[in-house]
Write a structure and sequence with these properties.
Blueprint lengths: L1 H20 L6 E2 L8 E3 L12 E3 L5 E2 L3 E2 L4 H5 L1
Antiparallel strand pairs: 1-5, 2-3, 3-4
Length: 77
């Protein structure tokens, strides 16, 4: 019974990794003003540090952004 439970957990992890790997790029938005005019603050922001974004609309600067994720079921219809 323990093996079955462990297999179920690894199947769930495997599904998450598959969906993350094959995910299409999504549009990002500013968490403060919801503007799509948000860019990486510098080209070096990815290399050693977490991605830091800058919003051209409201001046937000931070590592948190919003993503619009469309369900595959909605795309088909």
């Amino acid at each position: 019974m323990v093996k079955y439970s462990l297999m179920k957990k690894t199947d769930g992890i495997r599904d998450v990794l598959k969906s993350a790997k094959h995910r299409k790029p999504t549009q990002i938005y500013c968490p403060r003003c919801a503007s799509p005019k948000i860019k990486l603050s510098s080209s070096l922001a990815v290399w050693l540090t977490p991605k830091e974004y800058y919003c051209e609309n409201c001046g937000y600067r931070g590592i948190i952004v919003m993503e619009l994720e469309v369900d595959e079921k909605e795309e088909e219809t």
